Amino acid sequence: MPDEHTPHGLETDVKLDRYLGGVAARLDARPRGAVARIEGLHRKLLAVRTYLARTGEIRSGWTWSDAQFERFRASGQYAEALAEVEKVRSAFALLNPGYTLSVQTEVRTLSEQIGLWNSTGSVNTAGMQLLEACRRFIVDSTLYSDLPGTADLGRFRTALRKCAVKTVPTVAVPGLSQHGQLRAFDFVVRKDGEIVAGTSTGDIGVLWDRSGWGRRLQEAVEAASSRFEGPLRSPREPWHYTYKH
User: Rounded to an integer, what distance in angstroms lies between the CA atom of residue 189 and that of residue 186?
Assistant: First the structure.
């Protein structure tokens, strides 16, 4: 929503949306389609900024389609991945009697990733920070005309990429999540079927750090398999381990 205290208010956001549309139109069709499903100018800006910085990953790292995942599921690689996950689960149960690990072994679809992007608080906060930064420079009509031409869009693209935000989104930009190609697994600690340590960033300090579940999970991973790297450092996720196919 436009901020009434921002210079030019709604008019500025209309101009920003026009520029964003011009830049997004030049993206690969896959991120372009994802942007169309993202809610809010601020979240769209944040996504496009990320896509511009990671264009090299889009061809090889984009989330699998259903057909691609089915081909992977039918392959020996999928069976190998499940076997490595089971090694970690068995080691954890042995080291922590009474506790188990649950793991999602399905691809996180593009629709699911977009849903997370649209609903996660850190994305909303980071997006609003980026939106405010963009509002400040887009009002300069000597650099950004109301109807952007090629040069205007080039300047906007450069400025957007250089904008810094203080908040780090705690979910991946839609389409480029490691979970989209089963290159990562999230391990959830349970006891008697109930979650003891889950994947909420708000639980990291108490459950994963002070209660020691991060250390215990890492011990099990390192004891069981050489195919995992982690945990994820930025954004910090003690439950997230990258899997090497």
Answer: 10
